[in-house]
Amino acid sequence: MLAHYLRLGLRSLRRNPILTVLMVLAIGVGVASSMTTYAVFRAVSGNPFPEKSAQLFAPQIDIWGPEARAQGQDLPDALTYTDTIALMREHKAKRQTAIYPVNFTLVPDSASSEPFAVSGYAASADFFPMFEVPFVYGGSWNAAQDEARAAVVVISEQLNQQLFGGANSIGRTVRLGDHDYEIVGVVANWNPRPRFYDVNNSNGFTDPPDFFLPFTRAVDIQTDTAGNNNCYGSAGRKPGYDGWLQSDCAWVSYWVELPDAHAAKAYRDYLEGYAADQTHAGRFHWPPSITLRNLTQWLDYEKVVPPEARISLLLSLGFLLVCLVNTIGLMLAKFMRRSAEIGVRRALGASRREIWAQFLAEAAMVGISGGVAGVLFTGVGVLSIGLVFEPDIARLAHINIALVGLTLLVAVTATLAAAFYPTWRASRVQPAWQLKSN
């Protein structure tokens, strides 16, 4: 019977092509608008590291006090160099890394090649195992090289391709700024979106870094940060690079790996004790305050999902609702014009359940057609999303099998929901009235 009802529905759609086209377009456009914005929202709001997101934590320490809060300042989302070194020295976590962005000019070996700018990060050796960074060649430097401030570097696969044609470059040197660095590793194509470990310095959706070098080495050669440098309350600090390191300027991102809830609680207690010690030492003149957020909490705190993505998703869902309301009206007009046909079928013995099945099958045909149109419109929308969002975010949205399937499912489900009231009205047609009037 289902096949029969589908044939009846298809025949009915062909009988009223204008109404059919209007319904299909309403469903297609409404679904496409919501699926296009959903593609962006899904790309920017996903968990970039689900395997370990509950084990990775970013600590914050109140270095500015209640006066800063009264002026609208929150806890700094980075640490000072002083606090970073103190926490690194204690090593209370399973793994820990200090991170800050740096820029250099790379000078190629070939005299025929022009120097060019590269960007990367100064990090600790634990950065790579903590974040499970994959390698094409070699690996990371070790803790001893951190201590020795070794002139080593890990480069990206893209930079390796640019400099060495993709060959194994382990042991070769690359010149960054005024210094030569030995290549110890080549990172595979790794760029988590969002780049959770540095969202306080970027929107989290930029191109992958070109290189990584030891944090200790970058500080040793007095490399400035290429990221945020929040020096609230640091007026009157000593001049020069050493004065900056000793100041209360917050510029170092800091991450720790804590394998379970017990370890997280122990580390939180340690941070509270550290802040209390700073208060007792006279550095802080307020009750100690710290926070410890895991990866997903950190992304929420940093508001990584752009507000326009949330607003666009809500607006598109509202637009889909408007389209469904219009579809209800069109279906109601279409179904009630067939009251005579329904009356004859009821008089010949068709039950209300069979009327329901027939018209819902017809609505499903509309939904499938609207879903196909929605997939096409979604493709156009994804290609045009750069008109609304930043390029770094717009290029994350793409069509895949999952999005196509979801578009078809939403279209059919929404159409069947919209058909509920018109179908109920059609099933309530009284056959005696229709036979008398016709």
UniProtKB/TrEMBL annotation:
MacB-like periplasmic core domain residues: 20-222
ABC3 transporter permease C-terminal domain mapped to chain residues: 314-431
Pfam families according to UniProt: FtsX, MacB_PCD
Transmembrane segments: 21-41, 313-335, 356-389, 401-421
Annotated keywords: Cell membrane, Membrane, Transmembrane, Transmembrane helix
Recorded topology in the membrane: Multi-pass membrane protein
Protein localization: Cell membrane
Protein name: ABC transporter permease
Organism: Dyella humi
